[in-house]
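Record 1 of the preview.
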Amino acid sequence: MLFVCTNAGSARGQGLPGVPAPSASALALPAGVRQEGLYLTAPIWLDGAALFRIATPATVTGDQMSVEARAQFIEAALAQLESLRGNEPDSGTVYDPKTLHVRVQPDGPQAIILAVDAHHSNPIPILTVTSVDAKYQGEPTTALAQQWQRTLQKALVQGLVKRQPATVARNLRDLWHAAIVFALITIVLAVMLRAFRKREAMLIEQVEADERAIDEAQAQGEASEDASASRRLHFMGLAIRAADPTLSLAIVRSTRGLMFWAIVLLWFGALVWALSLFPQTTPLGAIIFHRATRIAFTWIAAALLVRTVGIGVGQFARSYRSHTHGRGEENARRLVRVPTVAHTVVAIATFVVYFVAILTTLSLMGISTGSVLTIGGLVALAVSLAAQNLVRDFLNGFLVLVEDQYVVGDYVIIGKRSGIVEHMSLRSAQLRDNAGNLVTIPHGLATDVVNCSRNWSRVDYRIAIDAKADSERAMEILRRTVDELAADRAWHGAITEPVEWIGVDAVSADGIVLRASVKTAPLRQFEVQRELNARMVEALRRAGIALGTHDAYAVSGAAPTGLQ
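->
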């Protein structure tokens, strides 16, 4: 190949003189060619790497060479400098990498970059740095020529060294040794993956067993307002016990996924590295690295980051559970909430990471990130309008968890529904109502929530006696009955404050209504009220005090509260 640099006019900087070229602006731009303002630019490739970009005016006139043809001539000159002596790979290169020297020769307003070595007295011109190149790069012609000279010197020497027989032999040995090391690492990771898979299977069995235990406990009795505190604590205990294997399972799955993607990344990087060792495969390795590898690396890195976040959140949740101190009730509630909160954090982090990965992938594919964000904003707006109830459910569910409004095992009243919370997710809560039905209530509909089992409850006790009876004596009997119930060992812990207050609530011709407030342990108010009814009927009968008429005032019941 002959590369000619003339000494007159701007044609000298474009390549061969006298070669007509059509206007590039009138044709579709070739691959790699970009129009940037007043210029058309093209990359100069060597061994799969883009060294720099050359420029020509956007409108080619006269005998000026197109930017694509100019790039082809420059790359042909570089290929000549890296050519082998013979057809055999071990024959060595024509030019000596030890003595190769790339230099700059000023030529008026332009500069010519040439290459020479100890075995060739005539330098080979590589390219001419034109004023158009200098204006496009924003550098003086001389400074730009020096910059390109250093780039070419380094790249050509590396390319020539890579083609030497000794280097090829050494690279083959390194590749063989690396293959052995990578194979051993893969075997070790595969054995660890198998162990983690067995551990995962064991944890899955344990989680399923815990879920069956919870289901059986729920089926043993009716989840109504008659549910005892022992049953509620049993539910919470089962949920706390099930949380440990659930967190462990999440950590094991994240670790296994991390190891799998580590193996993929290891061999992917090994493939690119192996292709870069030899000049015949370097362009392919560069293509994989600059295109497929970046996209693949983006998603592999995203998967690794998600798994790492999962492991970190799981370990933090486990550590929090093991070091949580406080009162038994509050401590139990925190322990029940930990798995759901941890799952929520991981889900949010996963969404953010994969959303960024999608934007990065679209950017690598040449799609404008601004356009992607605009389209994504419109899609997000449409989705938010179409699924606003679902979004509201998730947001309210997150607030329920953060504010600790209710947890599994609480007896709650949501709207017209009531029952024990058997299951909670970020979107909804499931209650077992008085008829034994499982009711699913989205968090977005839970506008008014009454927690009947938070920290303590209360019996708002009322009983009507005959209007002619001695009210003072009846109140004394009521107080004594409550005190005896609180002192009974069978009811130990059920009543925390025997009588908060007591008095006559209403008086009418039909009777006198006595009222007392008794503070109880969570969810013990119902059974305390029933037992108190039975004992009061017997005590009043022995005292000869008749009950009053059942009217609007004579209603005995318990008004559950969940005040803290």
